[in-house]
User: Fold this.
Amino acid sequence: MFCLVLGVMPAFGGARDANSAPVTLYTHFQQEPAPPLVEAIEDELEAIMSPAGVRFEWYPLSDAGGRVSTQLAVIHFKGECDASGLRSDAGYPGPLGWTHISDGEILPFIDVNCDGLRLFVQRDLIGMPFAKRDEVLGRAIARILAHELYHLLAHTKEHAGKGIAKAAYSVEELLAGTLQFGKKECASLRSHAPRTIGEPSVQGQ
Assistant:
């Protein structure tokens, strides 16, 4: 597996492709998070991916099965995805997310290390208003998830020099108001976007 250790670029616009099919995301939280945090994850991931024409349908992993999906991913959120109980210390947690591969093939299984993320950002997060912490932590989680989805959806193990697709983030980048893909990575996502039945995928943009 390849890992996101810690990932900046101004947002840029892009029209959503009417022929793109949604990516089905099946999610499993090791510990149930607060609804505002889940909402922040979903909203931020949409904001990051919409310029590339990628959209999502979300389901709990317990509800998997019985659906036809052009592209899917199973997301495991490990540890506590929770902005409560923070402490003033921080540390280097190692990888914050990883996408599984087998025999060189990228598999649709992604892990997000919520415990590691909390440790990494809590010193800065604890200084924010309590009412904003779930939203900010949810955005950070979404950025890690977006990075791993980039590997899966763009069919690449490579990293970029800047933006969400780079190999490592700072705390400031994870907690910033905006973090996006670079134009090259956005174009790659768009060219590989799943299509509705009968619509060929456009390659090599």
